[in-house]
Design a protein that fits this description.
The structure holds 2 protein chains of 2 kinds. By secondary structure, chain A is an all-beta fold. Chain A is built from no helices and 11 strands. In chain A, strands 2, 4, 5, 6, 9, 10 and 11 form a 7-stranded mixed sheet that branches. A 4-stranded antiparallel sheet of chain A has the order 1-3-8-7, with no helix packed on it. The N and C termini of chain A lie far apart (about 35 Å). The mean pLDDT of chain B is about 95. Chain B has no helices and 12 strands. In chain B, about 0% of the residues lie in helices and about 50% in strands. Chain B starts with a strand and ends with a strand. The chains are: A mainly beta, B mainly beta.
């Protein structure tokens, strides 16, 4: 079974703190994603990585950065946490090759981040 | 920019009722289309996907979706829902030349016995 593991289920951080969210996948997938999920807004893509050290901004990258030093690990960084970044954060991975039967994303359980 | 629209935000049905959830996308080129489901307390999982060929796609648990290219639509259907179908449903799309996966806003489905 594909496994995408997020390091924390729940996090509470203070405004202004630097926050690291970690995600690890065990299927040698090229692609990894970070989304935030908010009621009524669905899943919004923050960043997408298609290879080690390669990244592409999603729809809402402001206030976030990412790091992908190893293929299996994709980190989301909140440089200075703010209350409007309180949300559920979802990590996903998929194999490369859009247009093939193998392109399916697998998701982690999510990290519920509260910034106070 | 590429976008995905789901017009039904919250749907309430009785068991055995038929379901249709709308999904429209804005990109004019070749796309891959997906429906994902998130059951309460669980992670998102794939319900069905369309890449090419027959525009009527069958997925797990009796769900199906029809790709209508002329309408830029990929609506999800189930002839008879069950209480266990209570979940949030997300439509998603990737463009042919990229693996970047974009989601719609989701539809919350509540099924009452």
């Amino acid at each position: 079974d594909v496994k995408v593991t997020q390091s924390s289920r729940y996090l509470v951080k203070r405004t202004g703190e630097k926050v690291f969210l970690e995600c690890v996948q065990d299927m040698d997938h090229e692609n990894m994603f970070w989304y935030r999920q908010d009621p009524g807004l669905g899943l919004r893509l923050i960043y997408f990585s298609y290879d080690v050290k390669m990244k592409e901004k999603g729809d809402i990258p402001e206030g976030y950065s990412v790091s992908r030093e190893k293929k299996e690990r994709f980190s989301l960084i909140l440089e200075s946490a703010s209350t409007n970044q309180t949300s559920m954060y979802l990590c996903a991975s998929s194999s490369a090759g859009s247009g093939t039967e193998n392109t399916e994303a697998f998701f982690g359980q999510g990290t519920r981040l509260t910034v106070v | 920019a590429q976008s995905v629209s789901q017009h039904n935000h919250h749907v309430i049905l009785s068991e055995a009722a038929s379901l249709e959830l709308g999904c429209n996308y804005s990109y004019g080129g070749t796309v891959n289309l997906f429906w994902y489901v998130q059951y309460p307390g669980q992670h998102l999982q794939l319900l069905l996907k369309y890449f090419s060929g027959d525009p009527l796609v069958k997925g797990i648990k009796g769900f199906e979706a029809e790709f209508i290219k002329s309408k830029f639509s990929f609506n999800l259907r189930k002839p008879s829902v069950q209480w266990s179908d209570t979940a949030e449903y997300f439509c998603a799309v990737t463009l042919y030349n990229t693996d970047k996966l974009i989601f719609g806003t989701g539809t919350r489905l509540q099924v009452f016995p």
